[in-house]
Every structure is written in structure tokens, then in C-alpha cells.
Write a structure and sequence with these properties.
It contains 29 helices and 20 strands. The chain is of the alpha+beta class and 641 residues long. Helix 8 links the parallel strand 14 and strand 15.
Length: 641
């Protein structure tokens, strides 16, 4: 075994990569893979090589030092006497307690970092040690004695982990760009995935933009056996299974105030854990319920004044900076704000495509990147309010889906009378609304309604009319078999939208600027408590997120709490029809579209003309998806064509 540590200080949160192959490759490829992760880990890099039977093994690590800033926390880390090596990305918040338990069992430690805790916990308990960890993580453990390699991902999918497997190799990394540097890997776009991305604007695990390339699903362990060349994936934590297990618990209603106190206790403990770091820590503050509550409890937990960060827009209707400032004043944080213009957004587009290594089109990615860059000027870790909406019924759409499901017979009648379930004009907003009314014919359809109707608009845009919709199967599989429609919609969002959109957006944007983000709402203790809480508590007295609002009312005025929800949106229509219009026009070039062979050029041109003429938010959303995909394609695929 050979272990190398390189101190490269000149790059730009942690990232991991590695391979196991039967075919010889130049070991320098591992360093090339590692370089693709430099923004995730600018504080150093390390590589590990080994040969076993017919296999060659390479592991790499990029470090963003948050805990134990000394060289003792360097990776890959090896227990030489046991032949076990780890490369790891993330934070284990209960590592101090686990360290004490392991010391009582006779283990000694050379560092104060959490990496060594994971390694020693594995030596004691095997791969099932993952059940002990509270945190966000993606790691690889190579066990030379057992002749096995394990890939493990956290319960909420906060940290990314991609992989590809053939008969000759298994390759993995924190980012798809690193896989592209492995010489045996071949990238081929999965057009079926592009179709579903056009509406969802993200690609759900286990799928990726490339064929035979996957995201390891959250709460999963992948085991590769070197002796048999066989791979197995199992769930060690399943949100869907827990939701179904605790269905009866959600039917038992206790004193509502008990839920408020319990939420505060668990959330406070989560925030306390996430404030621990050997570097400066701040909080993203939008002025909304979730980030305001995290900031308030963080300030209450801290002896020092907390730094909070917000951005605003000059366009009226999208600016929440004033609300954030009002919250900051009420809770006493040291507040920082930055205003974003359309020109700022346009300038960032090349970095947006570079930041997300596969197509990703949630338009709040731009303000998230700007906010991350702004905060990184002062802190190395930032807490966020992500997860509050999905765990505590923060979206009015949950109630709408439940109402549609209860009245599904009406959709059946209207569809049978009008036949308008199929859109006559796929780009008409009126036909869109009518098709939605006619397609909510079952609970499954009510939950996935917009995706089903949007498919009618998206299908004609592609050159090949055949569509094997793998994404819809994933969406249906995420619906639990028990609970109310509202609960099922929330559980689906926790597994898909929260993990594959929100956490992807935040992790990639922050890591692009070497900023670590931590989400207190995604502590699995709080998630499990939420799974047992009745929806009659989450939506109470006609208020969404009732327990969180009740808790926040102890810190800020009701005027802030009761204002209409905005979300972290951007003035997308003004941007698309403003400075972005030149970018879009260039991407509508006939010769480019025809040579690419993915889209139907004639239909894309018709769609473009309707986009220019109609004031239609649905067309705006699809156009943003198209623009991001084509920019990604130009940057990542043209040179390989």
C-alpha cells in the first residue's frame, strides 16, 4: 500500500474520488480526478494506491478543513494494522461522544477529527456503524482483509456520491466531472432523463445525465466484493418505510403546545451541534420562517453575536432583504446584505454551468451561488433553513393536492364531458389549466399532476418520440402506502424535491466557493420526529408550519410571521426576456440543434416563438430548463463529440 499526502494550498468543502479496476490505468488519472474536486477541498489533497488479486485500487481526497486543522486529519486515512482505508466527505456531529465510547472499548486516537472516529467505529462495528452517525456524509471504506469496498451516503442526501460500474471497474466521486477523468469511463447522455428534467429541473437519484452512471441514493450502502466482482446496494435508513411504520403515531393527537416544545428542544440540539467548528460560522437569513427560526435559535445558543447573510433584488415583488434585516434586528445578529442585479445574474451563468456538473435548473441557483460567495468572504461554514417546508407542511400545494384527491370524481366527470385531459394547444396556459382539472383522476395523479400535464408539452420538443419515463416511476415509488394525501405529498417531497433539488442546489453552490453548509432541519432525529407528527399539527388553524410559526413568535413579531410566503425565487421572466434573451437566441441556432440531435428543431422553434409572444410562466420555466441544458451541453459535451 502506498499513501501520499500533497499540501496544495492554492486551489479553491471536501471531495472524494476513487476507482477499483482490473484493467491497468495510469495512476496519474487519480490526481486528475482529484483536481476536479478542488473547489470542494482547497486545503489539501491526498491519494492512496493498492493492488489486490487482479484489482488495482485508487482513493483520493480533497480537504476543506473545518475540524482539527492540523495535518493529523489528512486523508485518505488508513488503519495499517487492520488494512482498512477511508476517504470521507462531511461532518459527524456526534463524533465527540462516539470517540468517548470507542476509547472506553480500548481504541486510541491520533487526531481530534471525525474521520478517525468513522474509521475506528468501522473497525469495531463493521459497515453497520453508519447507524451510529448523526451528520451529513459520503464516504468510501476499502477493507483489504475482507476484500470489500463500501460506499455510504447520509440519510438526507446532503452529500453527493456518483458511481459507474462495468465488468472491469467501479469508479466513484463527489462530482460527475471527476468520473470523466477516469480513462475507462465513457459518458453517454440519457435523453430520457433530459425529458423529465425539462419540467422537474433536477435529475433524481439513482439517475444521472449519463447512462450507466448513478447517484448512490440517500440512506444507502453500496458493497463491492472484489472476490466475486459483485455489487449490492441496501438501505440502512428509509424515510418511506419509517413514514409507513409511524402511520398510527400520526393518528394520535396530543396537546398542540407539546409539539412546539418538542420541536424547539430537538431543533436547538441540532443547531448546537452544527455550530461546532474550528472556523467562523454564519447563518443564511432570507427573512422567511425557517431561516429566521434557525438564526434566532443559533443566536440564543451562542455566546457571541452570530453573522447572518441575505441578498436582495432590485425588482419589486422578489426582494426579501428588508424582512431579513428586520428579523436580524429583532434577534440581535450581525447582519450583512447584498443586492443582486440582472447583470450580476448574467455574469454568473458560465459559473452556474461549471458549478453543477449535470443539468440543474432551479432558478434560485443563481442567488444561492451569490449568497454563498458573499458569505464565504467572512465565514467557512453557514447554517441554512432548508427542509422546514417539506418537514412541516410549508407549501400550499400540499393542501391543494389533498383537495384534488378528495374530489377526483369531479375530474373524471369533467374529462368525460370535455375530453380536455389532452391539451389541444400544448403551449396554451388556458389548456394547461383545463388539462390539470381533467387529470386529477386518482390520488397518484393528484400528487404528480403538474408533471403529468407538463409531459404533454415536453414530449413534442424531442427528436425521438419514444420516452421510457424512468423518473415518473421514481416519483410514484416515493409515495407511501399509508397516510393522508397531504402526508404522502410531503413524504414524496422529502425524498425527491428536498434531496434532489434543494440540497443539490445548496451543496453545489456553497462548495463551488469552498463554503460548508449545514441544515439543522435535516438532522435525522428531527426528521424522524416530523414523520411521527400529525398533519393536523403541521397545518393548524389554517396555518402552514404551525409549530414553527408558534415557536418563532417568541422571537419576532407576528407581522413578519404572517406575511405571504415568497420563497427564494428570482424575477425569472424579466431575466429571460431581458439580458438573457441574447443567450437564448444564440441557443436557438438551427444548425446547432440539428447537429445535436436531441431536440426536434421545428418544434423547438415553434415553442420559442410562443415563449416570446405569451406571458406564460409555464413556458418561462421550460425555457430556463432548455437554456441551462444547452449551456451545460456546450461546456461539457461539444469537445467530446
Amino acid at each position: 500500500m502506498h499513501l501520499f499526502w500533497l499540501n496544495e494550498k492554492d486551489g479553491s468543502m471536501c471531495g472524494i474520488a476513487g476507482y477499483i479496476t482490473k484493467r491497468r490505468v495510469d495512476q496519474k488519472c487519480l490526481e486528475e480526478m482529484s483536481k476536479q474536486l478542488i473547489r470542494r477541498g482547497p486545503d489539501g489533497s491526498g491519494t492512496f494506491y493498492d493492488s489486490l488479486q487482479d484489482w488495482e485500487i485508487g482513493l483520493a481526497h480533497r480537504r476543506l478543513a473545518i475540524l482539527d486543522l492540523s495535518e493529523k486529519g489528512q486523508q485518505p486515512m488508513t488503519a495499517l494494522d487492520r488494512g482498512v482505508t477511508i476517504t470521507y466527505n462531511g461532518e459527524i456531529y456526534n463524533h465527540a461522544r462516539l470517540r468517548e465510547d470507542l476509547q472506553q472499548q480500548g481504541y486510541s486516537f491520533q487526531s481530534s477529527c471525525d474521520t478517525e472516529v468513522i474509521l475506528k467505529a468501522y473497525l469495531e462495528n463493521g459497515v453497520d456503524s453508519v447507524n451510529l452517525f448523526h451528520g451529513m456524509f459520503a464516504y468510501c471504506i476499502y477493507d483489504r482483509t475482507l476484500k470489500k469496498l463500501y460506499l455510504v451516503r447520509d440519510r438526507a442526501g446532503e452529500k453527493p456520491l456518483y458511481y459507474s460500474k462495468t465488468e472491469d471497474y467501479l469508479v466513484f466521486a463527489s462530482d460527475l466531472s471527476a468520473l470523466l477523468r477516469f480513462p475507462l469511463y465513457r459518458a453517454e447522455i440519457d435523453v430520457d432523463v433530459v425529458r423529465s428534467y425539462m419540467w422537474n429541473q433536477y435529475i433524481p437519484a439513482p439517475l444521472t445525465i449519463y447512462k450507466n452512471t448513478y447517484k448512490l441514493s440517500s440512506g444507502s450502502v453500496l458493497t463491492f466484493d472484489l472476490s466475486s466482482n459483485e455489487m449490492d446496494i441496501r438501505k440502512y435508513w428509509s424515510l418511506k418505510n419509517l413514514y409507513e411504520k409511524w402511520n398510527d403515531s400520526r393518528k394520535t393527537l396530543r396537546d398542540p403546545e407539546c409539539y412546539v416544545e418538542e420541536a424547539k428542544s430537538i431543533l436547538l440540539e441540532s443547531i448546537h451541534q452544527k455550530l461546532v467548528a474550528d472556523v467562523p460560522v454564519g447563518v443564511f437569513l432570507s427573512g422567511g420562517i425557517d431561516s429566521s427560526l434557525v438564526a434566532a435559535l443559533a443566536q440564543e445558543s451562542s455566546e457571541k453575536q452570530i453573522n447572518t447573510y441575505a441578498i436582495g433584488f432590485h425588482e419589486e415583488g422578489f426582494n426579501e432583504a428588508d424582512f431579513a434585516a428586520e428579523v436580524a434586528k429583532a434577534i440581535g445578529t450581525n447582519h450583512h446584505e447584498l443586492y443582486v442585479s440582472m447583470k450580476d445574474a448574467v455574469k454568473l451563468v458560465p459559473e452556474v454551468v461549471q458549478c453543477y456538473s449535470e443539468p440543474f435548473a432551479d432558478n434560485s441557483q443563481i442567488p444561492t451561488m451569490i449568497l454563498s460567495r458573499f458569505a464565504r468572504q467572512h465565514v467557512k461554514v453557514a447554517l441554512s433553513g432548508d427542509g422546514g417546508d417539506e418537514l412541516f407542511c410549508g407549501y400550499p400545494s400540499y393542501l391543494m393536492k389533498q383537495n384534488l384527491s378528495h374530489r377526483k370524481w369531479i375530474s373524471r366527470v369533467i374529462d368525460s364531458w370535455t375530453g380536455r385531459g389532452i391539451m389541444k394547444d400544448p403551449y396554451s396556459h388556458r389548456d394547461w389549466k383545463m388539462a390539470k382539472l381533467c387529470n386529477a383522476t386518482s390520488e397518484e395523479h393528484a400528487i404528480n399532476l403538474e408533471y403529468l400535464v407538463a409531459s404533454q408539452m415536453i414530449r413534442p420538443l424531442f427528436a425521438d418520440g419514444e420516452w421510457q419515463d424512468k423518473t415518473y416511476s421514481i416519483m410514484v415509488d416515493a409515495i407511501s402506502s399509508s397516510g393522508t394525501t397531504m402526508e404522502k405529498a410531503m413524504a414524496q417531497d422529502m425524498q425527491l424535491f428536498l434531496q434532489e433539488d434543494i440540497m443539490t442546489k445548496v451543496d453545489r453552490a456553497a462548495m463551488f466557493y469552498s463554503l460548508e453548509t449545514r441544515a439543522p432541519f435535516l438532522d435525522h432525529s428531527l426528521m424522524e420526529w416530523s414523520l411521527q407528527t400529525p398533519d393536523a399539527i403541521k397545518y393548524r388553524n389554517h396555518q402552514f408550519k404551525w409549530p414553527l410559526k408558534e415557536l418563532l413568535s417568541r422571537y419576532v413579531s407576528r407581522d413578519i410571521i404572517d406575511r405571504p410566503k415568497k420563497g427564494f425565487g428570482v424575477p425569472i421572466r424579466a431575466w429571460l426576456h431581458g439580458d438573457f434573451s441574447e443567450v437564448i437566441r444564440e441557443l436557438m441556432d438551427d444548425s446547432f440543434i440539428k447537429a445535436q440531435g436531441i431536440f426536434d428543431n421545428g418544434e423547438i422553434q415553434r415553442f420559442y416563438q410562443r415563449f416570446l409572444l405569451d406571458n406564460n410562466v409555464i413556458l418561462d420555466k421550460i425555457m430556463w430548463s432548455y437554456m441551462i441544458f444547452q449551456l451545460w451541453y456546450r461546456q461539457n459535451c461539444l469537445h467530446r463529440a
